[in-house]
Amino acid sequence: MSATARRRYLLAADVGGTKAAFALATASSARPQIVADRVYACQDFDGLQPILADFLQQRPVAEHRAAIAAACLSVAGPVALNTTTLTNLGWKVSGNALAAELRLPEVRLVNDFEAAGLGIGRLAPGEIETLQAGSPVAKAARLVIGAGTGLGVGLLTWQDDGYAVQASEAGHADFAPVDELQDRLLAHLRRTYGRVSYERVVSGPGLMRIFSFLQETGVGVPSKQLRDADKTRKDTAELIAEFGLAKLDPLAVRALDLFVAVYGAFAGNMALATLARGGVYIAGGIAPKIAPKLKEGGFMRAFSSKGRFSELLATMPVHVVMNPLVGLLGALLEAARLVGGKSG
Question: Could you give the strand order of the β-sheet that contains 92-94, starting from the edge strand earlier in sequence?
Fold first, then answer.
């Protein structure tokens, strides 16, 4: 039997509320080597099964399909008994059903921030930007948080000889304003949603809600340049972030400032809840794009502004994960673990 014939492959995906990233990788290294990948727009499909089926038909994936040893899909929703309903899509997914329908040996579902937590330990130095060096404690709890279409949270705790990741839905905790402007934002959002979670604010759709709130309450009006750009762009949140980051639109600047302040306060709340002395990692699709803004200081001021516990928060390392596919990496690592378990 040739080396090529003996080679085994891993299948992984990171499925969020907007995009689904898929990868096929070799199963023979510490950090699986991707040989094929593709990103899909979720809005173009009515479920996960047709996306996965399409990826399996692509070259060179189709040629290696029989050698796929395990698959792990990172999904933006709570996972129980290898099933989930994606929070911002409503898709119902069963890993066991996918394996049977698509003739795969095993399909494991994991929460997207469980996967992000798994991927953090394998990031290269250049894939992380530090906001606060702090005083890291070996084997202490770590925290991964990330805003994208939604708001995810994962907790890492040391067990035996490495970190284990616990998934969380803490992004759906009640939004807690810290000043008068945020009080007004809460009241504004409550008229639409009743109960307001942090995800309603700290997410791509949340940035658009902040922008609309500021506009509707008379803080400012969008510039003609932003309005014109919005006519040709699909992602309004990304546009607001870009204009705010480049200081091209005063209202976008105000919206991004408020977004970052709430994001930092939420991260500080989670760091207190978990005593994340091993480090806080800000992941997700938005953080890498606004990293210069996160470095300006507003995020860390909100993070550390916790009264009697401000000094404690100042000791915790805080990093921005610049690799937006850390969840895909984590899913590949979990797939590799499944293969290792079968082998040993």
Answer: 79-80, 83-85, 92-94
pLDDT (tens digit per residue) in 210-238: 999 999 999 999 999 999 999 988 889 99
Q: Is the dihedral of CA 283, 16, 289, 326 positive or negative?
A: positive
Task: Say how many C-beta atoms besides its own lie within 10 A of residue 100's C-beta.
Answer: 11
pTM of the full structure: 0.93
Structure tokens at 331: 């899913």
Strand 142-147 and strand 279-283: pairing? parallel
DSSP secondary structure string, 254-299?
A: HHHHHHHHHHHHHHHHHHHHHT-TTEEEEETTTGGGGHHHHTTSHH
- Cα–Cα distance for residue pair 285/167, rounded to 1 Å: 18
The answer to whether the beta carbons of residues 152 and 145 sit under 8 Å apart is yes
pLDDT digits (tens, 9 = 90+) for 56-109: 999 999 999 999 999 999 999 999 999 999 999 999 999 999 999 999 989 999
